[in-house]
Specification:
The chain is an all-alpha fold and 149 residues long. Helix content is 66%, strand content 0%. The chain has helices at residues 4-8, 17-32, 46-58, 62-65, 70-76, 83-104, 110-141. Helix 2 (17-32) packs across helix 3, helix 5 packs parallel to helix 7 and helix 6 (83-104) packs antiparallel against helix 7. Residues 1-16 have low confidence and may be disordered.
Length: 149
């Protein structure tokens, strides 16, 4: 029988490349099959985001998990993608990851891990909103004819 303390430090069956790949595939499928905004994933380094989220969820403690937000830098690399599409895809990732956690995580840790996941996705959504607000603010203050403030 496994050591209960050691079991509490793992998500369930553990993260390796297979769960990350299957979670990424489920996210990609959810984006393509989205009922109102079907599109391939537009967020840069999407596979790396899933791997980073997996590492974050696999952290032994919430303090260790708070050290890095893997989605913020990827949001900056989305280019000209529409913010509504990016947010829709982040919410699709949250839905797919929550379903995966409920299947794979140790029952005693599901709530904690869901909260970590929600924090990361919410942080990414806020980054998209902040970037959009900055772009709107700049557009409002810049003269389109001269480019001057």
């Amino acid at each position: 029988m496994a050591d209960p303390d050691q079991a509490q430090q793992t998500v369930g069956r553990g993260f390796g490349t297979e769960p990350v790949d299957s979670l990424y595939a489920a996210w990609a499928s959810a984006c393509v099959l989205h009922p109102t905004m079907p599109s391939p994933i537009v967020i840069g380094d999407a596979h790396e985001i899933v791997a980073s989220i997996a590492e974050l969820l696999d952290a032994a403690s919430p303090t260790q998990a708070q050290t890095e937000r893997p989605t913020r830098s990827a949001i900056e690399s989305t280019g000209a993608a529409a913010p509504t599409l990016i947010v829709a895809q982040l919410l699709a990732l949250r839905t797919v990851a929550r379903a995966w956690l409920r299947r794979e995580a140790l029952p005693a840790r599901v709530l904690e891990l869901e909260n970590r996941l929600l924090d990361v996705v919410d942080d990414a959504v806020l980054a998209v909103m902040a970037r959009s607000l900055d772009e709107l603010e700049q557009a409002a203050f810049v003269d389109p004819l001269t480019g001057l403030w």
